Amino acid sequence: MSSVHVWNGLDEVPADLGATVATLGNFDGVHRGHRAVLARLTERAATAGLPSIAVTFDPHPIAVLYPERAPSALTSLEQRLDLLADTGLDAVLVLEFTREFASQTPEEFVDSVFVGALHARAIVVGCRHPIRGPQQRVGADPHRSRQDPRFRGDVDRRRR
After folding, report:
1. Of 90, 123, 142, 152, which residue is most buried, by most CB within 10 angstroms?
2. Residue 134 has what DSSP assignment?
3. pLDDT digits (tens, 9 = 90+) for 91-136
4. Residue 78 burial class via C-beta count within 10 angstroms: exposed 0-12, middle 13-18, buried 19 and up
């Protein structure tokens, strides 16, 4: 297993962290599709000379918002972190998912996590991944973050 920094909450992200390239997902099981996104993330980060950061939630958002519909976890958080470390990431930010956390607007989420804490120059996501806040899409346009003047990076949507 490779070494990866794990930050449990925004308060553990180093204050002097410079620009990054980031992704967002639950990454339960770190399947082939996740690995493709993570490979693109690490490639983009290496090309730019920036750290690669994965943002994930614990517990799974569905388990908090709709517990009766929550799928069984494929991996524990510890196993998920081990699998993520093996992809060559520099760091993983684990955000505790609570109902209070879910009450953020999409703009507040992007602003606090990707703009404020991670200084993301790019966000790499899968082809079907909406750019979301904890509960909803950021506007009707899945590329909304590109248009937000606070987010000066780009959204890299991996195609199939």
Report:
1. 123
2. S
3. 999 999 999 999 998 889 989 999 999 999 988 887 655 554 444 4
4. exposed
Closest of 5, 116, 91, 102 to residue 41, by C-alpha: 91
Is residue 131 within 8 A of residue 143, CB to CB? The reply is yes
Rounded Cα–Cα distance for residues 142 and 151 (Å): 14
Give pLDDT, residue 28: 84
Residue that wins the pLDDT comparison between 126 and 14: 14
Helix-strand-coil split of the chain, %, nearest 5: 35, 20, 45
CA-closest candidate to residue 127, choices 31, 36, 20: 36
| Token pair belonging to 108 | 């507040």
Distance CA 32, CA 86 (A): 13
C-beta separation of 158 from 127 below 8 A: yes
- The residue with tokens 């908090």 is 64
Q: Please say whether the beta carbons of 96 and 127 come within 8 A.
A: no
- By three-state DSSP, how is residue 116 classified? helix
- Alpha carbons 88 and 31: distance in angstroms, whole number: 15
Pinpoint the alpha helices (H) of 10-123.
Answer: 32-48, 61-65, 77-85, 99-102, 106-109
Please give the Cα distance from 137 to 145 (Å, whole number).
11
